[in-house]
Every structure is written in C-alpha cells, then in structure tokens.
Design a protein that fits this description.
It holds the Pfam family TAF1_subA. By secondary structure, the chain is mainly α. Among the domains are: 4-137, no CATH class; 378-470, no CATH class. It is built from 22 helices and no strands. The protein is extended.
Length: 470
C-alpha cells in the first residue's frame, strides 16, 4: 500500500489547478527516500469507493460518511485511524463539481497537515515533502499553504528554513494578482519582516558581547540591514486595517532603538485611533506605555487610559489610571477614580487583589474623613451593587478563606464591608473577631472607625438593610 504522503500528494506534479479535476488515478510521485506511514487495511465498507456509475446521492453519502469518520478520529486524537480514512477520502474527491474541485486542495491540506503534525511515525522531512507538493495543487492556495508551512517550521525551531520559504513565496507570481493574493503576500512579507527582526535582535545581543571594535562595527552594519528590511515590511502590513500586535510591537522596538520617536508616536497613534481599524485594547496599551517611557504629561496619559477603561474596565492598567486620577486636583477626577476602582472589583479576577481593595478602602476613608458632602459618590456606586456584592465579596465563607490565606486582604475587605454593610456584616464581624484573638492592634482602630461612620452616615441611606442576613 502507498505511504500516506504519497497518497496525499498523488498527482501534485501534474499541472493541477482549480480548473482541472482532482484525479485520484493521476501519476504517482515516487519518494522512496522518505519514511513512509504504512496504513493497515481499511474497513471493508470503505475499501472500494466507486465514483463511476453511482448516483450522486450515493456518492455524496459515501463522501460525507468518510469525512465524518476523519473528523471523529481527529477530535479523538486517533491519528492513525484518521490517516486510514484519509486515503479513502481522496478517492471520493473524483468529482466533476466545480465547487468540490475548488475546495478539495484546501481540505486535503488542512486534514493532511493536522495528521502529519501529530502522527507518531511522521517527520519534519515528510511534512516538508507534503507541503511542497500540495502548494502546487490548486495554485490559489499557494501563498496560504506557504505561510502555514512556515508556521510549522517555526514551531520546530527551523528559523533558517522558514526564512527561505518566505523568501521563495515573496517572489511567487501566478496569473492575475487578486485582492486576496495581495493581502496574503503582505502577510508573507510581514512574517519575513518578523524573522528579519529576530535576526536583528540576535545581532544586537552579539554586538553587546564583542570587544573588537571593527567586528562590532561590521555586526552593527548587518543589524541595520535587517532593520531596514523589517521596517519596510512592517510599515506595509500596518497600513491595512486589522490587528497586527506582534508586528507593531517589533516595529516600535526597532524605531525606538534608532531613536525615531516621532515615527513611533505616529505609528501608535494611527494604530489606536484610526476608525478603519477594529477596536483593539492593546493598541491603547502600546500607546500608553510609549507615552509613559517618554515622560509625557499625566493629562495625555489619562486620556489614553480613559479609552482603555471604556474598552476593558478590568485591565491591569486601571490601577495606574485610578492612581493618576486620585492625584489630580479636580474633584471630578477623584469621583471618576472611585468609579474605576469599584468597576475593577466587579470582576472575579480582582476578587483577591490586595492593592485594589486597599485603593478602595483608602478612597472611602478619605471621603468619610474629609468631605461628607461627597458621601453620595459612595452611595451611587454602592446602590447598583448592593444586591450582588455581599454574596460575591463579603460572605462568611469568603471571610474564613481570606483570613486563612491572606490577612492583609481580609483586613482591607473587612474595612470596606464594614463601611458599606455596617458593623453587623458577617464578613466584618468574623475578621474583626479573628484580629482581636490574634491581638492585632490595627483592628481596634478599624472597628472604631467603622462603628462611627457606618452607623451615622450609611444606615440612614438604607444600605445596611440589604446585608444583615449575610
């Protein structure tokens, strides 16, 4: 029986395009030098799929059944079984349907690549052989297959091989250039730029270790050559609306190394604010980080984080956003800061974040001590949360866990719980009791503060009524 790769690539050296049929009986490619994946006998009901003289319905049923067996085997990681059915599936592709002819090459590539990536008897040489043959099976898939072949090479650490494949693909031309081909070519060039960046980075590391000035100068020239190649390709890809985070990050690093800060600012601003681009929180993160490195004003940085807050209110940079808002001289910024920290704690990922609870506790304390007229800030935030925060954050069960695992966390949360829910809140009572038993002096101060402020200011607002049962 033919090897799996021979079966998959049968007929590939004939000039197969979407306009020609997938002929399972085409001339075979001999590859005796390659290791073979030998397949056992197929189940009898799929050994001899017949394409001539069958009704279309029977043909489609056979094809669909075979494909479903392959799909099932792939989902269950049964790579040998998938390979067995794949050889039969190739025979079912002898169809005169134009739709099937166009879809066949990509179907074979997708399934075959998946099997070869995981099959225990497969090798990188066999995968390369398959990829090279399949690239010419339906030329409209050439660039797409090239790019995915490169990904496989990179995953196996074959950087030089990947670079060579990208260079070959970059020079590929066939017929009239379509819009789809143009975008795929841009991707090919962008990933080639990514490998140019990698080579630049390796040269930079080597240059730092050199003591010979002449040799260091030569390496620096090589670095600059890689920089120019990478920069050209990166600049082209980020003109196209899309999410290009890996390319943008590398491009920014290159530009900053050569101190082209104006270009960095322009690139990142365009990436973040161009309305043609999809909404991308990372674009605002990259811009903020650059502005921070450049020592830009807090006003400028706050403007960037304001948009990030609207997109991802649980982002880790929200603590920095909150801190800058609290340092502002404007009261409305302080109120916004309170909203930001309350919103952060709405998300489960922040439930046990000590710094976040400390920020909230500190801001609540400042409001209660210094400006009782701003008490409604707290009340407005709490009113939308009083039905679910008690169970989410302040249950008796959580009090036990928090105290056992992190006393600092329990202390900050207990203070907030006491203010918002009153001194009878079970979270506050449990932590206070444990603190008293452990002779922690700070709990006495906390209890006095909570007793004074929660009863005199919050009970009248009806906040306590929602939580006494906890």
């Amino acid at each position: 029986m033919d090897s799996f790769v021979e079966q998959l690539t049968r007929g590939a050296e004939e000039e197969f395009t979407e306009e020609s049929a997938w002929d399972g009986s085409a001339v075979r490619i001999e590859s005796s030098s390659l290791p073979a994946i030998h397949l056992p006998v197929l189940p009898r009901y799929l050994q001899h799929t017949t394409t001539g003289g069958r009704k279309a319905t029977g043909f489609q049923e056979t094809k669909t059944a075979c494909f479903n067996y392959i799909h099932e085997a792939l989902l269950e990681n049964q790579w040998q079984r998938a390979a067995e059915f794949m050889t039969a599936y190739l025979e079912t592709l002898e169809s005169t349907s134009a739709e099937h002819r166009m879809a066949a090459p990509e179907v074979v590539w997708r399934i075959g690549a998946e099997i070869l990536c995981h099959h225990s008897k497969s090798s990188i040489e066999e995968f390369n052989y398959f990829a090279e043959r399949i690239k010419n099976v339906g030329v409209k898939n050439y660039l797409k297959v090239c790019l995915e072949h490169v990904f496989h090479l990179l995953c196996n650490g074959l950087i030089d091989d990947a670079y060579r494949n990208l260079s070959l693909a970059e020079g590929w031309r066939y017929g009239e250039q379509t819009a789809a081909h143009d975008k795929e070519m841009k991707l090919i060039q962008a990933y080639k730029g990514l490998l140019d960046y990698y080579n630049w980075s390796e040269k930079r590391k080597a240059m730092l270790e050199l003591d010979d000035d002449d040799l260091a100068q030569f390496v620096e020239q090589e670095m600059h050559s890689f920089f120019r190649q990478a920069a050209v390709n990166f600049k082209e890809i980020i003109k196209i609306p899309g999410v290009w985070d890996p390319f943008v990050k590398c491009y920014v690093e290159l530009l900053e190394f050569y101190e082209d800060y104006d270009e960095v600012r322009q690139v990142l601003s365009e990436y973040a604010y161009n309305s043609k681009f999809p909404s991308n929180p990372n674009a605002h993160v990259y811009l903020y980080q650059f502005l921070k490195r450049q020592g830009e004003s807090k006003k400028t940085r706050i403007a960037v984080l304001k948009i990030l807050h609207e997109l991802v209110p649980s982002h880790e940079l929200m603590l920095e956003y909150n801190a800058m808002l609290q340092k502002s001289k404007k009261r409305k910024k302080h109120r916004l800061g309170l909203q930001v920290i309350f919103t952060v704690l709405d998300f489960a990922g922040w439930k046990e974040h000590v710094k976040a609870w400390s920020c909230l506790a500190k801001q609540i304390k400042q409001i209660l001590e210094n400006s009782s007229k701003h008490l409604y800030w707290i009340m407005e935030e709490w009113n939308s949360r009083k039905d679910w925060w008690p169970a989410f954050h302040f249950s008796h069960h959580l009090a036990k866990i928090n105290w056992q695992e992190n006393e600092s966390l329990a202390c900050e949360k207990a203070f907030v719980a006491g203010i918002l829910l009153g001194k009878d809140c079970k979270y506050f009572r449990y932590v206070s009791h444990q603190g008293h038993k452990a002779k922690k002096g700070r709990f006495q101060t906390m209890k006095k503060f909570v007793k004074k402020h929660s009863s005199s200011h919050l009970r009248a607002s009806g906040v306590l009524d929602s939580c006494i049962h906890l």
